[in-house]
Amino acid sequence: MLRRLEDPETNELRDVIEIAFEIESVDAEKVTADVIEYISRLSSEWQGPASLHELEEQAALRAYVDAAPNVDELIDAAQVHADMAKRFRQDLRRRDLPPNMRELTGAAAEGALRQQWITLARLALAQILPDREAALDHVHEAINEAPQKIAAALILAIAVGDRLRQMVAAHPWRP
Q1: Which burial class, exposed, middle or buried, applies to 142 when counting CB atoms under 10 A from its CB (0-12, 13-18, 19+)?
Q2: Which residues of 68-93 are buried (b: 16+ CB within 10 A; e: fewer)?
Q3: What is the rounded distance in angstroms from the CA atom of residue 160 to the CA atom of residue 166?
Q4: Cβ contact 131:83 at 8 Å
Q5: Which residues have a Cβ under 8 Å from the Cβ of 172 and sit 6 or more positions away?
Q6: Which of 74, 80, 106, 144 is least crowded, fewest Cβ atoms below 10 Å from its Cβ?
Q7: Domain ranges of the chain
Q8: How far apart are CA 64 and CA 46, in angstroms?
Q9: How confident is the model at residue 62 (pLDDT cuts 50, 70, 90)?
Q10: Predicted structure pTM score
């Protein structure tokens, strides 16, 4: 992803990508060795005119176009997960909760929160956003409350979703 950024050294998404994927520093020698190894494996297996990456990108874009989620359902689902996480966190404050239930309730709260983040990432990546700003307000709200790594992943999902929507608008799909 870093390599695909325009002006990778100054692009504002560089920091977001590094946080989301926990990239602290890039060892050029290690990356070069990995690339050479990958290319040598690829050249022995693949002899077509298109690169594997081009085929992957085409398949990803086609899958993206084919899978247009219902934005309202995603927003509703994200809200349900948020409400459940809140309810489980409130249950954790009860003094009469046995230790084994406290552990399970904590895990349920964390699970509901993760489901909310996943649903919001899917929303940010949605192919069609009739009202982009209104839909992404839900994602931005979660970004403000999420841990740094999750916030970075959601910011990245918004940027990738915007780019994919631009690509789809520029190249309308005809099945």
Answers
A1: buried
A2: eeebeebbebbeebbebbeebbeeee
A3: 10
A4: no
A5: none
A6: 144
A7: 13-64, 69-170
A8: 25
A9: low
A10: 0.67
